[in-house]
């Protein structure tokens, strides 16, 4: 695992995932049957025959796809990178592929290149363009992986060398600088094939990161399970891919939108444990992103605009010896950020060994009173008087400037 990650990754913390493909046309339903799983797996889960699924390409004309609005909304939300599904498990290329005619440019009436449009928008707004590619699963290719079974009866190398490798070459050659190749579900790919794929990426774009889901533990960072947040700080770089509702690809029946508080709390939790948060949107079959997604991004952006210093470039603190519900910590040199999701008049923190110099609310710089105290057990503590919460202040971030470069906790008296 690569411990020398680029600064944009270390500082960025927050990215936008975009799941968009033929599955967006079905919107979670095929011939009157609703999928009970994530929408982009509908071909697999409802056993849609290859030739039937391919017919969807004739209906695919997402004229409402607006890369500029998507990327500008990501930037306003405080995000620093965008990951786009160039080819998901269904095998349909969402870019101008010369390797396969099964693409949005050749097999559909759309005849636009959404990846090229995202490239232009990312350059305009200063975000890193990153690419998702399903390297092992391809349900359109008989020799590619499907499910978790062995490859008996399949010639995986035929798929790997005739489609996967050439398409990855296209993606890393034709779309400028790519920040990250987000590979997914290695299935029964061998370590040798995963290594070969990573070496290809490194040879074409040496600064391009490779996600942990390339397999065999050779990625540049650890990718957690979907929507999974580690309980404690992880010893190494990691990223949490997560949804705004219950699915990744668009599902017209899924209205289980997570609250703004849930998403901001998730962002804080992940950064406080040393990770990056990759939050997903799923455009519908016309290319339109649900307005609920834009609304959530806007509300997260309102928090980030005033409190972004506590997220961007921030690091986790050593494990705090007390579990305080609704309180999280991030830090930067000489600063401790206390993320308070609770409604209370004061905050009492035990076992703080660092010397405080200044205390204020991060969003507006309002000075706050901080009293240093010594407990009966001879432990140092801080008592911070908190201001009344502002309207819609989900997370009241308190910044304590310290004499020490890094926050220090005292040992716990058992």
Which features does this protein show?
414 residues; 17 strands; elongated; single chain; eight-stranded parallel sheet; 25% helix; four-stranded antiparallel sheet
Ordered list of secondary-structure elements with their pairings:
Layout: H1 7-12, E1 14-18, H2 23-26, E2 29-30, E3 33-34, H3 42-45, H4 50-54, H5 67-76, E4 81-87, H6 114-125, E5 128-133, H7 156-174, E6 180-183, H8 191-204, E7 209-210, E8 222-223, E9 238-242, H9 260-272, E10 275-281, H10 291-307, E11 327-332, E12 335-340, E13 346-350, E14 356-361, E15 370-374, E16 380-385, E17 396-402
Parallel strand pairs: 1-4, 1-10, 4-5, 5-6, 6-7, 8-9, 9-10
Antiparallel strand pairs: 2-3, 11-12, 12-17, 13-16, 14-17, 15-16
Describe the structure.
The chain is of the alpha/beta class and 414 residues long. 25% of the residues lie in helices and 20% in strands. It contains 10 helices and 17 strands. The strands form 4 sheets. It has an 8-stranded parallel β-sheet. The protein is elongated, with a radius of gyration of 23 Å. The model has no long low-confidence stretch (mean pLDDT 94).
Overall average pLDDT: 94
- The total beta strand count reads 17
Strand portion:
15-25%
What Rg, in angstroms, do the CA atoms define? 23 Å
Poorly predicted segments: none
The assigned structural class equals alpha/beta
Helical run tally: 10
Strand order of the largest sheet: 7-6-5-4-1-10-9-8
Oligomeric state of the chains?
single chain
Identify the overall geometry: elongated
């Amino acid at each position: 695992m690569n411990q020398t990650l680029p600064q944009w990754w270390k500082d960025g913390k927050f990215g936008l995932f975009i799941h968009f493909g033929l599955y967006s046309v079905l919107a979670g339903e095929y011939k009157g049957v609703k999928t009970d799983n994530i929408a982009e797996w509908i071909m697999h889960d409802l056993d849609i025959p290859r030739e039937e699924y391919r017919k969807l390409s004739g209906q695919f004309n997402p004229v409402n796809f607006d890369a500029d609005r998507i990327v500008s909304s990501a930037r306003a939300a405080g995000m620093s990178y965008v990951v786009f599904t160039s080819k998901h498990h269904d095998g349909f290329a969402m870019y101008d592929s010369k390797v396969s005619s099964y693409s949005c440019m050749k097999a559909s009436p759309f005849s636009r290149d959404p990846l090229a449009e995202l490239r232009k928008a990312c350059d305009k707004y200063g975000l890193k363009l990153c690419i998702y590619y399903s390297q092992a699963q391809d349900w359109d290719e008989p020799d590619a992986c499907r499910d978790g079974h062995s490859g008996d009866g399949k010639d995986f190398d035929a798929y790997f060398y005739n489609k996967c490798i050439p398409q990855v070459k296209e993606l890393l050659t034709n779309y400028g600088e790519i920040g990250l190749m987000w590979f997914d579900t290695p299935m029964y790919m061998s370590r040798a094939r995963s290594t070969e794929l990573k070496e290809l990426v490194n040879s074409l774009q040496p600064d391009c990161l490779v996600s942990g889901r390339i397999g065999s533990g050779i990625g540049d960072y650890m990718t957690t399970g979907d929507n999974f947040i580690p309980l404690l700080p992880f010893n190494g770089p990691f990223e949490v891919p997560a949804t705004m509702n219950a699915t990744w690809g668009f599902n017209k029946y899924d209205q289980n939108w997570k609250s703004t508080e849930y998403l901001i709390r998730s962002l804080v939790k992940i950064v406080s444990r040393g990770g990056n948060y990759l939050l997903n949107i799923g455009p519908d079959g016309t290319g339109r992103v649900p307005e609920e997604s834009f609304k959530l991004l806007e509300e997260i952006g309102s928090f980030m605009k005033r409190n972004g210093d506590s997220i961007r470039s921030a690091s986790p603190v050593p494990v705090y010896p007390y579990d305080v519900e609704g309180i999280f910590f991030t830090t930067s040199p000489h600063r401790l950020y206390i993320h308070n999701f609770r409604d209370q008049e004061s905050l009492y923190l035990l076992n703080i060994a660092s010397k405080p110099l200044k205390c204020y609310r991060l969003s507006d710089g309002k000075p706050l009173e901080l009293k240093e105290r010594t407990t009966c057990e001879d432990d140092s503590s801080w008592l911070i008087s908190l201001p009344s919460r502002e309207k819609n202040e989900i997370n009241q971030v308190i910044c304590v400037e310290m004499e020490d470069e890094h926050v220090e906790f005292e040992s716990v008296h058992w």
